[in-house]
Amino acid sequence: MISKPCEITIRIEKLQALDRRLAPYHQVHPEVTTELSNRMAGYRGEKSLDFHLSMLPDKKYYIFHGLRLLYRNYFFQLDNFLLCSAFGLNLEVKNMGGELHFEKKFNQMVQTKKDSSARKTNPVLQARLQAIKLKKWLKEHNCLDIPIYYLFVNSNSKTLIISEPGNEHITQHICNSEFLIEKIAQIETNNKTDLLDPKELRKIKRLLLNNHTPENPDILQHFNLTPKDIPTGVHCPGCSFLPMKYFRGSWNCPNCKLKSKTAHYQAVHDYFLLIKPSITNAEFRHFLHIDSIHIAQKLLFSMNLPYTGKFKDRVYHSPALWKE
After folding, report:
1. Which of the residues 106, 188, 264, 276 has the least number of beta carbons within 10 Å of its own beta carbon?
2. Is the overall model pTM greater than 0.70, yes or no?
3. What is the longest distance spanned by two Cα atoms in the chain?
4. How far apart are CA 241 and CA 134, in angstroms?
5. d(Cα 10, Cα 321) in Å, to the nearest integer?
6. Which domain, by its residues, includes 281?
7. Do 144 and 184 sit in the same domain of this protein?
């Protein structure tokens, strides 16, 4: 049972908005595109795991994607966590290409792509650490003790994984995604005793979901930017030209001549992601290049955004972050 689905994170959404807004020649743009590319590769890797996880008995497992929990003033994140009555399983999922060499002496991983090699954080040790943190987190929340296993799962089917002899303590926690179901079956074979009854399972499920805290970073601060660095205006949904012009009830693109009545939706979404999760009529006019207070009010009203205040003091809020 998918208890928490695999979704695009707020961080990725903010990176996408920043990638849209910054000019290609901006000095920070290469950093933005690199991080966005890496995180999207990770997301695709986790998403591709859904196919394999769908082969598990639906009523036996609770499956959680992207849990982020607070433990002793610090957050830790689980790419995928599987919970059943006999055990829990933490899956550290990567979408890494080339060759992955697990070295015994320094317990490290080296990734080789084409003619270059680089040391990477050992994902097996990452998976182990997150499993340890989760076990302690569950204990602090008065949950019954169950074994928490861990695996590093690489979702890139073309990747070659190489491990030195005598490294079995590491390799037993590694698999490609196509071998995942077999690895889970092996764990099941060694854990046939039910430790959690249905009531305790539901309790842990509620705890995990209620304590999940999505990461919501200040992406401008992360790249040492300010709101003044963000180009304003409405992007053309056809050719991405910036800015479109509002005329006679439509957004008009001077470049490709496309007309749209809803092109401002994306601009407001970008504003919420990059600037702040609320917007006034005056801020809307400035960011979207609208002169008329009444036209701005009409466009804002058409988006059905939650709001506070009345008339000239009204503030519109991002639906995703709005709380009564």
Report:
1. 106
2. yes
3. 73
4. 47
5. 10
6. 232-317
7. yes
